[in-house]
Each structure stands twice: as C-alpha cells, then as structure tokens.
C-alpha cells in the first residue's frame, strides 16, 4: 500500500518529525523510521566507525609525538607486536639494579636453597599476578593509568584511588632505587676516587658514602628529569640501547659461568684463620715473604702489628692463626654449590667467616681499622625477601602500552608471562653462582661488560620510572576522585595542573611532584632501606589486581568476558594471599604503614571524593550481597530485638519543586540511631508522560535536601492522577522485599480548617491505610519549629503513655537521645491513672519496667478523676458539630447547584431542537407549540425559591441542634488530656503523645481532626505516635 501514486514526488505527511526540512528528500530514506531518535541511538555503521577510529592514551601518553608530523599527516595505527611492545619493556623493568648489585650478596647470605626459596616465592607472586592482570587486560581496552585503571574500574574509585596512589609512590621510589644503584655503581666500580666526601677514619666511611650518594643522586635525578621533560620519545629511543646492554651483560655472565668449568678465573680471597679480609690495603696474602733469601714482613703484617720488624707486637688473633689464600670462584665442578646450600645470617658488624675452616678464637673487641670483611647490616631471611622483591617488579610495563600494540589482547598475556618466565630462569640460574663473589668477575671477556651493562640498566630503569609515574598521577587527577587535588593554586586547581601538558606532551606539574618525592628516597641514601618501601607499594598493587580478577570471576557478571582463558579465581586468591604474606614477611611495620596509608586514602575518597559509576566489581558484589540479604529477610519477619524504625517520609514539594518542610528530614536524621531504612518520597499530581521530567527534578531536589540535612537513604517521587492515590501507592509499595518501611512519618496538616477538604481527608486516609497495613505512624506538629542538626537542646523530652500499642512511644526518645541535638535532654514518662487504679503501685511497676528495658527516665503518674463534663466542653463540641453541619450543607448546595444548572442546560437544548423541528407547521400550531413545552420553573425562580427555603430551614436546624453524646465524651477526653499535658509539659522541648485511631465511619473524619487539634493545643513541638500493632521493644536479652 502506497500513500502517493507512482511518480509523485510529494513527501508523505510525517507525524513524528517537524515540518522543517533538514536535508534532501532521499537522505537516509531507508532508515526514516528511526531518524527521530538518531541523536540518542546512532546507526550501527556510525558506531563501528567510532570504534575503529578509537585511539587509546596509554601511560606513555603520546601527545608530544604529533610534533613529528608537521605536515598534518595522520599517524599510522599501532604497529608494535608482542616482542617489542610487551616482552622487551617487561624485561628491561624486571632486570635491573638488584641483579647486578645484590643478587650475589643474597646468595652468599641466604645460601643456594634459601635464595631459590626467595626467588620462587617472588616469581610465583608475579606470575600469578600476571595471570590475573592478563584476564583483566583482555576484558576490554585499558586506557591511561595501567594498573590503576584496571583496579579502579574493577573495584571502584575508592579502592582504585587508594591503590593507585600506592602504585604511584611505589613507581616513584623505584626511581630512587635505580638512581641510587646507578650512583653506587659509578662511585664503587667506575670512578671510585670521585667522591665529594672522604672519610678521615674507617668508622666514617658509612657517613661519607651516604653523603656522596645524596649529592650525586640529586644531580643524577635532576639530569634524568630534564631528559624526561624534553620528551619521552628520547627515553623510548634509548630504551633499546639500554636493554641491549643488559642483554650483553647477561650473556657475558653466563658465558663466564660456562668458562669456569674449563678455566676458573683468577680471583683469590685472603683468609686469616677463617675470617675473610679485604685486599684493597695489601698486595700479598701472607705475613712474611722471602726477598733475596731474607724474610721480610708484608703490608698485611703492618696492619696487625705495631711495627714492620719480626719481633713487633702483633694482634693476638693474627699471631695464633695462619693466613691462607683460596680461589674466590673455584668453578662449577669444585663442589661450591654443595658447600653453600645453607645460609649464614648474622647481626651487623660480625666477621664474614668461611664455613668449615678451623681457627684459634680469642676474646677481643671489634677494631674498625683491621681489614676484615664485616656484615654491613643485620641479615635475616625476611630482610632479603624485601630487598630482592623489587627485582621482579615491572610486570605492568606491557599493559601500560596497550594503545601502542597491534593486538593488545593477545600481546599482553603472552609477552608478560614470557618475560616473567625468562627472568625467573635468569634469577634461578644466578642464584647458584656461589658465595662471597663479585658478579663482575664471572663476566667474559671482561668485567667491564658487567659494569657498563649494570650502569646503563639502572639508568634506563630510572628513566622509565620517572616517565611512568607522572602519567600515572595524571590519570588519577583526570578522574577527579581525590578532592585534595582540587586545592586552588593560582589560576588552576592542583588537579588541572597535574593534567597540564607541555608542548612536547609532558605532564609538567606531575613530573615536578614526582621529582620531589623521588628526592626523599634519594636522601635516605641506602639502597637496602629503599627496597622494602617500594616492595610494600608494589605488593599492595599486585594484591588488588588479584582481588579484582577474583571478584569479577566469582560475580560472573555479563560484562566479564576476557579473551585470556587460562585463569581461575583460586589462582587469583592464591596470588593475593602470597602478596599479603610477602608484605609481612618483608617488613611487618612497613606493611602496616602501607595499609594505613591506603586505608586513610580509601576513607578520604569515600567521604569526600567524587561519586563515580564505573560498573566496578564492588558495586556488583554489593548487588549480589543485597539480593542475598533480601532473600534471607523474606524467610521470616524480624525479631523484636532486631526491630528498628524503617521510615517512609512523606514530603511535600512546593511549586518550585523544593522541599516544603526540610525540618522533616532533620527529624529523620535525628531518629536514625537505629540505622534503619529511610525512603523520602513525594507525590506529583498528573500523568507521568506529562510530568516525568519534573519527577526526576524533584528526586534530585530531595537528594540535595537529604545531603544538606545528612539524611542517608533513598528518594523517590511518583506521579499519579491524584495525591490520594500517590500516598496510597507509597504506603503499599515502597521498599523491596524484607527491606520495606514499617513506619510512616509526615507533618501535621497545619491550617487544615481553611484548606480544601481533600487536604485533611488525604491525611485521615493515610492514617487508616497505615493502620490497615500494620505500620507505625509518626505525625509531627509545628515541624518547622523542630531543631536543626546544628542545634543543641537542654530540657526534657516528655512521653505521655496513655495506651500501649507496641512500645514505640518509649523507644523513639531513646533513639533521639543518641543524636547530639537531644543528647543533653532528660526523658520523662507520664502515664494516666483512673479512679480505680493504684497510682503508687503503677509508679513502682513502671519504674521496674523501665529498669528492665534499660531506659533512664523519670516517672510520674497523673491522676485523672471522673468529673462532670464542663460547659466549655459541651459548647466546644456543639460549635464543632455546627461547623461540620454547615460545611456539609454548603457542600450539598454546591453539588445541587451544579446538578440544577446541568439540568437547565439540557432542557434549553431540548427546547431549541423542538423549535427547529416545528418550524414548518402552521402559524396557529407555531403559536401553540411554545405553550406546550413551557417550563414550569425558570432558572431564576428555582434558585430564588431554593435559597428562601434553605435559609429558613438551615438556620433553624443549626440553632436547634443538640451535640452527639459520643462526640461530647471524646471532646471531654481531649480537653482534660490537653490540660494535664499543658500543666506538666508546656515547657518541654518535645512532647510525645499516643495518637487516637480514626473513626470507622467517614462521617466523623472532620470531628476527628478537631479532637486531635484540641489534644495538641498550646504545645510547641508535638510528635503523635501510633504503633503498628506489634511489639518493638523487649525486656529480654
């Protein structure tokens, strides 16, 4: 079926589109049915085009590289493969200062088996972390931030921000470690005589070395920061050169190890007894030597004796023991591995002795001027773990370059795991070299290969750290989750400054902050002291990577679809446990400090940070936990001991959609010592299609008011055809499952006498519905006079316990007194004794009851004797009924007037139709026709007669009325109770009263409102309480 004939070029009328033409007739003709929503629902082709052109900013951000293309040519897509993009960067970051400067010392101290255990634990930790990281990295694109991005998007902004800062600190202190290693190699092996500080005495060597490390380290840091500032492209170009040096060094080491099988190197070690000695102050390992057949003393003799002649007085240990020389590197076939299977730990300052050698021991004090080899620091297994662990870090280097990879989801798992496997084999092989050895002596063809390789390795790793850390901080600042980064600094916030880039693409302010923190690590001036610090931060980061993978796997969310399939949640938990164990094994106090830092950052971001919804695993875990808890709550109703007020707060919104009574939210906050559910709701009259946007705006205004009053809960605005239906809907359907409200809080309709009838009728219907639903009801009179959260009251909270309806009347004052507003107030409980009650016994029983309830309150029994109904009560009841009757007549008159006007209009229409039908009749008939349909009553006559009749009868009836006996009795009760309350509690800060139930017959609704008004008359703040029909407080434990 076609709307136009063939060849007709007219466009069809489109009821869904505006009349204005936005393009040619044939533009998008095939998809015209969807063009109304094309802005919010793009075509599939457009979506795929955006995905294909997506460019990813990595931790090595690439804005500066655009300067290389001055002609504006478009940069080619990512072309880096697994080897260049992942394997080599991981290798360069893993192999570094520890391998060259500390591995042989660790082997010599821990022994072969101990070193194998250390290497295995650390490598297993990084391998399990790499498996978890591969799963997360292949579950989608990983933009700038690397590990921080993965953790924050998996575990939420709080955990991500805290761990991201720890990872940043770890990366920054890693830069300090590499710079200290660089300077140590420079001053120890390359130019040992270039120190600025020189020790005058042997005991001052440590002081001089530390100061030299500080001076040269600071200069090296400034130089490296300048290189990074100039451009990270130079760092990337030097990376391959540095990595080539590392590879040549490793090849030289293993070539030297193989060479020891054929020809062990000449590296003698001098022993005095079983004590090792440094040979830098003597040339021959002997006490004496033959020169021209004459025995002469050596330089070693002069170090232990007070003269160079043979009869000089010498050190006792030197005299009793012989000097021997042994090969330092005896070769693989010499059994050196077997001799060094076990470790030898000791405190600082202890002699390094050869195990198995015999010597004559003497009692002597430690003398620093002797050339003995001593322990620099106290050594134990856990210390070595903390020092060694930085040598296996760097596994995140590949994931941080995901935007530069041709196929990131394939390259990251393969390259990272291969790099860890390779370096693990290298370290395991290095662990079997031997004890008390210098790794450079193994190198073939020259030790300088190792010296130069280790120097450039440390330089390259330091540059990589100074390049990556600022970008990590920049990624955290861009997310805007840490308010501390928003402190104003001149024209920019600190967050904006950290995000600023120079013309060559460097985050300048973030780089300066990184340099400042890195300088702190350099001032420590001890590689062994800095290593455990960064170990803590890296281990914490790895721990949360494993946790993120485990949480995502166990949640089984639809979005968890990693391409890397070789993972399991048990491996992630094993890696997480291993990380936590290594933290406390390395240094329990550093571990606690790192956890405290992360915990403080977590709470700070949670309390003050920006709200982010990243679809994280913690959110999913919360949803699963909430679902499980709701299902469990459905199994049985809560016990009395678990009862707490779950509030449904019915608020009113004014014409501007602002909360009309914000003190209602203040009261809600003050009652939340029970920590129950809070739902703040409001109703808009109309249709949802017409007022849906206003409903959403109203919800936002409710949330803002709740935040201002510190009310924790949920807000909801519904749109219904009438306010009555909306209130009924909320009372019935608010909440979910076991987390439904059990108490309704609303304000007393002040000025209800002059308001339309539906105002107080809606109130009474709400009272009836809460009673029918077995829900408690709280009605606050003069709600605008209630205290705000900043006020502090000192007075009394008076409870008038007239009838028992569950104990809510006594529980609420206790909850209010937990809040600082009411904390200084005293609680008083009044009860009423009738004529046949023993008021003294009632007081004792009530005091015992309060003691069993653990409530501290003053008790008073008010006696209300039977008395005649006063003329005031009789008159007040009569006026109430007369007013009610008059309002009914006025309402009836309005209804009759509307019906009569409608009837007259129908008769006039009938008259007009009759005249038209008889227009063609004869003249006599025409004259007679109107007389046949003449109305007996005209409109004016009917209204005049009705008013005359009503005036006479209505006034007569009103003045002849006698009040209803039941109403008189109820009014009598209200007047007497009000008088008693005014006598005792007129100056109370808050009065809590039992709320009488509404009448069963709707005809008495208006009288019910009058009774409540009389009951509360003259009181400043009143809270009417009506229980839900169940016990909410108990004396049992």
UniProtKB/TrEMBL annotation:
It catalyses: K(+)(in) + chloride(in) = K(+)(out) + chloride(out). One of its GO terms (cellular component) is plasma membrane. It is found in: Cell membrane. GO terms for biological process: cell volume homeostasis; chemical synaptic transmission; chloride ion homeostasis; potassium ion homeostasis; potassium ion import across plasma membrane. Residues 86-256, 372-648 form the Amino acid permease/ SLC12A domain. Residues 1-23 are annotated as: Disordered. The chain crosses the membrane at residues 84-107, 113-138, 213-232, 239-258, 377-399, 411-430, 442-463, 509-527, 533-555, 567-591. Signal peptide: none annotated. It is a multi-pass membrane protein. InterPro entries: AA-permease/SLC12A_dom, KCL_cotranspt, SLC12_C, SLC12A_fam. Residues 777-1037 form the SLC12A transporter C-terminal domain. Coiled coil: none annotated. GO terms for molecular function: potassium:chloride symporter activity. Keywords: Cell membrane, Chloride, Glycoprotein, Ion transport, Membrane, Phosphoprotein, Potassium, Potassium transport, Symport, Transmembrane, Transmembrane helix, Transport. It comes from the Eukaryota. Belongs to the SLC12A transporter family. K/Cl co-transporter subfamily. This is Solute carrier family 12 member 7. It comes from Gadus morhua.
